[in-house]
Amino acid sequence: MAASSPPAPAAAGTRRGPAGLGTKAMVCGIVGVTLLPTVYGMALSVLLGPAALVLGLVARSRARRDGTGAGRNAVIGIATGAVAFAVAAAVIVLALTGVVFSGDDEEEKKPAERREGPSVQVMEDRSGTLPWPGGAG
Q1: Which pTM does this prediction carry?
Q2: Averaged over 104-117, what is the pLDDT?
């Protein structure tokens, strides 16, 4: 009977299986969340969030299938990816709807005398008494 040789080790710096995908998902999610306060980061978070979600879900399903405990990073990637995508998408939608539906700002820049429409004057009561509505006071 011939002795079997052990499998060759993986190259340095490479990980196989769900642990590698889970780590990639976690990194994408964390980077997406930390870039949220910047304008360009908001656009990147819209891309990194779904990437973290997909990588995390694939890594989590592989970890369950293989029976390994390598799903922790995948869960972190799923959570941070969902937060990054949701916040970035909400801010972008709110910004776009604010720009699209804000109306004409030129009307606000005109002086009050030049504005079109009915004008309202507020008069001061100097008599000291106010009449009742609909009748003599």
Answers
A1: 0.59
A2: 59
